[in-house]
Design goal:
Layout: H1 2-20, E1 24-28, E2 34-37, H2 39-45, H3 49-52, H4 57-60, H5 66-79, E3 83-85, E4 111-119, E5 125-134, H6 136-156, H7 167-184, E6 188-195, H8 198-205, H9 207-224, E7 230-235, E8 238-244, H10 248-263, E9 267-269, E10 272-274, E11 278-284, H11 292-308, E12 314-317
Parallel strand pairs: 11-12
Antiparallel strand pairs: 1-2, 1-5, 3-4, 4-5, 6-8, 6-11, 7-8, 9-10
Length: 320
């Protein structure tokens, strides 16, 4: 008699623990019909256990990918091994609203899921237990850290005044494009340009006006470039553009299009209307170019040719 009472007491404790543990517990049969639904699931789904029992799980939660979940469950039933789903792969299986005050920015609860085989008295896997862990705090902390790291990475490679790639970063990109050319010999061109008579702009209108001219030039460059083009600020009023899959003719067309757009611009600063032009040099990579540095120097020679021959023009340097 004492043994029966102890067993009943232990069973009561176990059921109380299953109901009040701070993880979701769901038991389903091979037809994925719900057999157990604990308090965690009730609280977060709004569905009472009595309303879920013997119901198809997919009818209760239509957002669960049927084929994906059945594949997971089948491996547990057949192989008698555990299966898992983590939030990095799938943010949630059960679409529960997030009510945690600390991580209120998350709309839904991030979840890790474990699927465990439950054996019958005959040793067969008759059911599986789905354990739902609320990992919203961990996920949000990770995402915030990743966001902060991305922001730091962006700041480390971005020119503050123009939001273009800074010199350190675009030179890394130039080295990569040079190496890529050496492997595949895809046509690639480099354009370097600067603002004509920029010192006169600063002297006449002030450095703040000069900064606005630089920013306007940078915005025009960005608008003119393709997504694959790499735009950067060399320093001062000088800029570079790396044009992948572009030969000298294409580079010259790009340079002229940019030059004509800039020529039509007017920068309004305080009571002044400022117009300006740019001079450009273009150089396509060829097998004779020894290094990324030489490539830049050749483009710079083309820029010098434009400046020596009247400015507000584009010149192409052809490597020997």
């Amino acid at each position: 008699m004492t043994t029966d009472i102890e067993e009943l007491t232990e069973f009561h404790w176990m059921m109380d623990m299953l109901q009040n543990i701070d993880v979701g517990l769901v038991v389903v049969n091979p037809k994925i019909e719900v057999k157990l639904w604990n308090s965690f699931m009730e609280n977060h789904s709004g569905l009472l256990a009595s309303n879920t029992r013997n119901k198809d799980l997919f009818s209760l939660f239509p957002e669960i990918p049927v084929e994906w979940f059945k594949h997971k469950a089948e491996s547990v039933f057949q192989l008698r091994t555990r299966a898992f789903s983590i939030w990095e792969q799938r943010p949630y299986v059960f679409k529960f609203k997030n009510y945690r005050p600390i991580t209120g920015a998350a709309e839904y609860m991030y979840q890790n899921i474990s699927l465990l085989p439950l054996t019958s008295t005959t040793g067969e896997v008759s059911h599986i237990c789905i354990i739902v862990y609320d990992v919203t705090d961990i996920a949000m902390s990770r995402l915030k850290l990743e966001g902060a790291n991305k922001q730091l990475e962006y700041l480390s490679r971005t020119d503050k005044l123009t939001s273009l790639n800074n010199r350190g970063y675009w030179q890394e990109c130039q080295e990569r494009e040079f190496s890529r050319y050496k492997r595949h010999e895809n046509p690639t061109s480099l354009v370097i340009f600067d603002i004509d008579h920029f010192k006169s702009v600063n002297d006449t209108y002030g450095h703040q006006a000069g900064d606005e001219v630089i920013r306007t030039c940078a915005r025009t460059l960005t608008a003119c470039a393709r997504e694959i083009d790499i735009c950067g600020r060399y320093g001062g009023e000088e800029f570079v553009v790396i044009l992948p899959d572009t030969d000298a003719k294409g580079g010259y067309i790009f340079a002229e299009r940019l030059r004509k757009l800039v020529e039509k611009l007017t920068v309004n600063h305080e009571d002044f209307s400022i117009q300006f032009t740019i001079s450009l040099g273009v150089c396509e990579l060829t097998p004779s170019v020894a290094s990324a540095k030489s490539w830049l120097e050749l483009a710079d020679q083309a820029l010098y040719h434009s400046k020596e021959n009247g400015r507000n023009r584009s010149s192409v340097q052809k490597p020997e």
